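Write out the 3D structure for:
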Amino acid sequence: MKTIKDTNYSFEHTKLRMKERYAMSITRDEYDLLCKKVRTKNDVRLIKEEKQDGDIQYVYDLQFTYKGKIRVVWSKERNCITTVLPVN
């Protein structure tokens, strides 16, 4: 059975990576707010853009509430954050 990579899948994946890479938890409401922040380009910094299998992915740095800066990957195709990366 093929995995459907929709917003719910992206949230669950992002939630796991937040714990793994930042030792922080994220709620669905926080995830939705971060997606809105990226969608509206509100206080985000573009790091890079890359084409990938029929999609364009953008890497942004942004503030995650009071918890600190995080680096997220945004999928143009899915119109949501798909994961977080470590900030080096």
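The CA atoms of residues 2 and 9 lie 12 Å apart.
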